[in-house]
Amino acid sequence: MTGLPLNRCTGCGHAQFPPGLLCAACHGAEFDTVTASAGTIVTLTSWTTSGQALQFAEVETDVGPTVVALIAGEEATPGANVAFSSTTWPMAHTHTGDEPGKETES
Ligand SMILES: [Zn+2]
């Protein structure tokens, strides 16, 4: 199973990440799980450590909440669609090759 599991309040439907003891919207304490499979990059931060370049992005998930994810794969750009692939740490994969005609501007 791929995707990022999020807690969704059974009282009001608010989804949140990371999980909390109480719903941030209505303070309810009952949750079920909803899986975010994809999202859109809002902002990007690049970080180089030990000679390795990492990209972290704020990703607005398809179920609502915005999460910070490690970007795997091609260099990402804001507005790009990504797919979540890890359930331990949010990891988002850039889609490549499925947007014909899209070129990197230099
Ligand atoms: Zn709620």
Query: Poorly predicted ranges (pLDDT <50, ≥5 residues)?
Result: 98-106
What is the N-to-C order of secondary-structure elements (H for helix, E for strand)?
EEEEEEEE
Radius of gyration, taken over Cα atoms and rounded to an integer in Å: 15 Å
How many distinct helices? 0
Q: Structural class of the secondary structure composition?
A: mainly beta
Q: Order of strands side by side in the largest beta sheet? A: 4-5-6-8-7
Into how many domains do the coordinates divide? 1
What is the strand tally?
8
Instruction: Estimate the strand proportion.
Output: over 45%
| Overall residue-averaged pLDDT value | 84
Share of helical residues? under 10%
**What is the CATH fold-level name?**
OB fold (Dihydrolipoamide Acetyltransferase, E2P)
End-to-end separation in angstroms reads: 37 Å
Which ions and ligands are bound to the chains?
A: zinc ion
CATH class: Mainly Beta
Shape: elongated
Main sheet summary = 5 strands, mixed, barrel
Question: Which second-level CATH architecture applies?
Answer: Beta Barrel
Q: What descriptors fit this protein?
A:
about 110 residues; mainly beta; OB fold (Dihydrolipoamide Acetyltransferase, E2P); five-stranded mixed beta barrel; three-stranded antiparallel sheet; binds zinc ion
Report a brief summary of the structure.
Helices cover 0% and strands 48% of the residues. The protein is an all-beta fold and 106 residues long.
Explain what this protein looks like in three dimensions.
With 106 residues, the chain is mainly beta. The chain has a single domain, classed as OB fold (Dihydrolipoamide Acetyltransferase, E2P). The chain is 0% helix and 48% strand. It contains no helices and eight strands. The chain has strands at 4-9, 15-16, 31-36, 38-49, 52-61, 66-72, 81-84, 91-94. The strands form two sheets. Strands 4-5-6-8-7 form a five-stranded mixed beta barrel. The protein has a three-stranded antiparallel sheet with strand order 2-1-3, with no helix packed on it. The protein starts with a strand and ends in a 12-residue tail after the last strand. The model is unreliable at 98-106 (pLDDT under 50). The structure holds zinc ion (ZN). Zinc ion is lined by residues 9, 11-12, 14, 23, 25-26, 28.
